Amino acid sequence: MQYPLSPILLALALVAGAPALAQTQPAKPAEKAAAPAKPAAKPAGKPALARSAQKAVEEATPIDDDPSVTLTPSDLDVAKQVFVGDIPCELGATVRVRAARRDGIFVVTTKGYRFVMHPVESRTGAIRLEDAKRGAMWLQLGNKSMLMSQKLGQRLADECQSPQQVTMADELKKNPRPSILDAPRPAASAPAADPAAAAPPAGTDPASPPPAAPKTTN
């Protein structure tokens, strides 16, 4: 004979069986891990310039003056005598000399070369500009100039003449100045004395005094 279960026992049975029921249910699949964040895109770099464009940019970029160069008042006086502008040279070359932002500093350019120069003392009295960093020199004489690379050991431009130097060259052709290599001219000798005028008259003693002049009466 079966006895009906009391409500209390039935409730206890349901509570006891709940954990087992939970274990038998299939577990939900784990959520997919979040996809790793994509690295931020790198900013696009500046496009590379062509060589011709790079050269144009560099030529248009001003050259900073060398602050280590100290110019004396004498150097500034020499700088005032430097011819500036486009100066034609032999073999079709041209040298451009222009004043930089700083007094006494010059930018000297020719085909493929660019220098920042300043006056230096010259032992010959010529105007001399130098770029010590690049080993270049601009020598300005009265009738011509030249650009020399001491670093390369060669002249970059020669026989350069500004309008003032052309005028000086023409003047020197008309009135050449004596060179220190020319032999000095002999000094003009005094004319020889006439021996007949110096000889005493015949029949007189050279040692006797000359006769006295006759006295005159009033």
TrEMBL record:
Residues 1-22 form the signal peptide. Residues 25-50, 183-206 have a biased composition (Low complexity). The keyword Signal applies. It comes from the Bacteria. Keywords: Signal. Residues 25-72, 169-218 are annotated as: Disordered. The keyword Signal applies. Residues 207-218 have a biased composition (Pro residues). This is Uncharacterized protein. It comes from Ramlibacter pinisoli. The lineage of its organism: Bacteria, Pseudomonadati, Pseudomonadota, Betaproteobacteria, Burkholderiales.
